[in-house]
Amino acid sequence: MIDLYYWGTPNGLKLKLFMEESGLPHRIVPVDIGKGEQFAPAYLRISPNNKIPALVDHDPAGGGAPVSLFESGAMLLYLAEKTGRFIPSDLHGRAEVLQWLFWQVGGLGPMAGQNGHFAVYAPEKVPYAIERYVKETNRLYGVLDKRLADREFVAGDEYSIADMAIYPWIVPYVPHGQDLDDFPNLRRWFEAIKARPATVRAYEGVAPPYQGRSNISEEERRILFGQTAAAVR
Q1: By the 8 A CB rule, do 128 and 192 touch?
Q2: Among 78, 99, 71, which Cα is nearest to 22's?
Q3: Which of 88, 98, 176, 215 is the most buried (most CB within 10 A)?
Q4: d(C-alpha 176, C-alpha 122), whole Å
Q5: pTM beyond cutoff 0.90
Q6: Could you tell me the domains of the chain?
Q7: CA neighbor of 77 nearest in space, from 14, 157, 2
Q8: Which of 15, 20, 184 is CA-nearest to residue 31?
Q9: Phi and psi for 106 in degrees, rounded to 5?
Q10: How confident is the model at residue 233 (pLDDT cuts 50, 70, 90)?
């Protein structure tokens, strides 16, 4: 059994997609980040960076003590290796998946995340910041659209953890100021993943991105965006 510490954000939904696709036995443990549950001492022992998702695998390969993990990219790779699914076994195929997984965790996620922060959450509009991140998100969409011009999925002909990592960060394309009609290859890929039964299950009950988030309370804003090192000591 795997405990998945989860909230319905793009990074949380990456792992929900894997669980639904793989059928791995798991238990969802909600972590309400708006209430500060990610700073609870027990959770910090699992996720010292006080972010979601995180997991504890109580039945690791080969037995032994439970394995706890934080960082969504590391978790996807761990689960792919545990199950032998959604990552190729050959050197070249594996390299293709890994580079696009890291492209998401190092590029698309942080840039689109800053896009959403300044466009939706910031208490004051900063035109330079909004323009900066909308343009960079647009550039990254262009990279992905070009990549998908001659292949069904990001790393080739097979659905992989790279697709699972990227898809939840494309879902908020409207609040991120993007139009999928400008990216036909990306749109084709997006619609195909959206229609997968596992994706439908993963997104059941998940609120639309940023719904009602522009008027969050000052306390919630402080919890989400105002923490310093003191919160994790």
Answers
A1: no
A2: 78
A3: 176
A4: 14
A5: yes
A6: 2-86 (3.40.30.10), 91-202 (1.20.1050.10)
A7: 14
A8: 15
A9: -100, -15
A10: confident
